[in-house]
Amino acid sequence: MPRKRRVTWPVMADILERQKHFWELRLSVFVLDKRKRPLMPCSERRARKLLASGRARVHRLYPFAIRLVDRALDSSEVQPMRLSFDPGSKITGLALSRAESVVDASTGEISVPVMHIAFLMELVHRGQQIKDALTARSAMRRRRRTENLRHRKPRFLNRGGDKTGWIAPSLMHRVHTIMSWVCRIRKLAPVTHLAQELVKFDMQKMQAEAAGKEISCLEYQQGTLFGYEIREFLLEKWGRTCMYCENKDIPLQIEHITPKARGGSNRISNLGLACQCCNQKKGSTDVKDFVKDPARLKRILAQAKAPLKDAAAVNTTRWVLFNQLKSTDLPVSTGTGGQTKFNRTRLGIHQGHALDAACVGDVSNVLCPAKPVLTVKCMGRGSYCRTRLNAFGFPRGYLMRKKQVHGFQTGDMVKAVVNKGKKVGTHDGRVAIRETGFFNIQTSTGAVQGISHKHCQIIQRGDGYRYSLSPVKDSKSQASQGRALHDALSLPALKDRVSRAIPG
Ligand SMILES: [Zn+2]
Question: Which residues contact 410 (CB under 8 A, 6 or more apart)?
Fold first, then answer.
């Protein structure tokens, strides 16, 4: 049975019309020229007009892209666009923004760019599923070996070879899917440079500081990036707890372990975190006199001296990703996690993987954060193994040999119009096929079961991902939440002498 043809524009227009939120979400639409080369994204209003006047065709539904029939790239102007990443263990945020920097005519200096967000995306990884599948496979193989070939001598540690640069498949999958989305987005938008959050803290700077280069107290002041990173670093290093009473979830202040009044330095190894109560109680007494319990004192001093590398774990996957990004022909810039958070709080932007990505690196401002986020979940393309197994590795059932039924395949995005019966209505979403020809459809509101293939039409072929659009978060509450977060994190600036709580 040949694959079904994709539906044409009128059917898609109907879907978009019914999914009104699609249009009202202040969505940016990707635009291609007549040769399918990327142009600047446009607003959804403009896309709607272009489609209605027949000047454009729908190119792709998720992410939504249109193709102009009468425009070529050569006769169009494109601006620099930055694609930035905030790689996470379960979710990676991606943000595509138009970078606007001003060149000072007199000095020739280029200002730190303002980012206009065009597209936000969250890529949900499936590392755990991959790990589980591989563990199950290895258990199955082990069972086969011990059960059927028990007379054979065990063979193990026979998988030698060079494993430098190797990372586990569950982690490599993150790199692969991100790289695949870099390629996809580059086909839809004129991306000119990439930016990635590479490390949590700028360790080089901190190492230099630890090596003896004193930083002036000014740099600890609120509002400077480095001061912010130091605070973030201390929060991480001390596990967000008071070092004396070990209370959690309370406002913490920067604390000199050996007080400045007794010759203590500003070095990171001399800084800790304490709640206001302990901080005041300690005052300018020495830590050795303040902490009576010798075991606790030993622990505190050991933690303070802990090498910086251990406090901020080095993330291998991010480096692998960074090297892969460098292998594209685009320039790659990097930022630190502290910098991202600094930008986000400074600009009062709501927390989220995609918005974090927009705040990565050197940005002076981030505009239009009120955009819907396209959530893209990695689903895989089904398994090769046709046998379903129980927890003990014994066959439980068999999947059908072919992966298609009536031209549909699990993972396709379909639209089903049912006119009568219990399931009456229009359902669109990701389909899971059944040999009977009655499919399950995962819609945005839930799963609908037992829909006949006769009612279904493919709107986008399965490509290993499941798509959903999240509604816009209210920009007003965003700003206030950003402030609340800032207050929660703010630690009083250090005084020159003893570390003291700020009154009130
Ligand atoms: Zn305390």
Answer: 382, 403, 431, 432, 433, 462
Q: How far is the CA of 228 from the centre of ligand 1 (A)?
A: 22
- CA 246 to centroid of ligand 1, rounded, Å: 6
In 177-243 the beta strands, taken as DSSP E runs, fall at 191-199
Question: What's the CA-to-centroid distance between 367 and ligand 1, angstroms?
Answer: 40
Tokens of 288: 């050795």
| Tens-place pLDDT, residues 242-263 | 888 888 888 888 888 888 788 8
Longest dimension (CA), the chain: 84
- How many whole angstroms from 285 Cα to the centroid of ligand 1? 15
What is the DSSP annotation of 469-504? EEPPPPHHHHHHHHHHHHHHH--PPPPSSS--PPP-
Per-residue pLDDT at 482 exceeds 70: no
* Structure-token pair, residue 436: 């009977």
Q: How far is CA 327 from CA 146, 168, 322, 333, 424, in A?
A: 45, 21, 9, 13, 51
Q: How many angstroms separate the Cα of 399 from the Cα of each of 161, 380, 387?
A: 36, 16, 6
Q: What percent of the chain has pLDDT over 90?
A: 28
Nearest to 29 by CA among 13, 40, 18: 40
Question: What are the C-alpha distances in Å from 350 to residues 95, 161, 468, 472, 476?
Answer: 14, 47, 20, 11, 10
**Cα 238 to ligand 1 centroid, rounded to whole Å:** 12
Contacts of 388 (CB under 8 A, 6+ apart): 395, 396, 397, 398, 399
pLDDT single digits (tens) 203-245: 666 666 555 555 544 344 444 666 677 777 788 788 888 888 8
Only one residue has tokens 């639209």, namely 415
Average pLDDT, the chain: 81
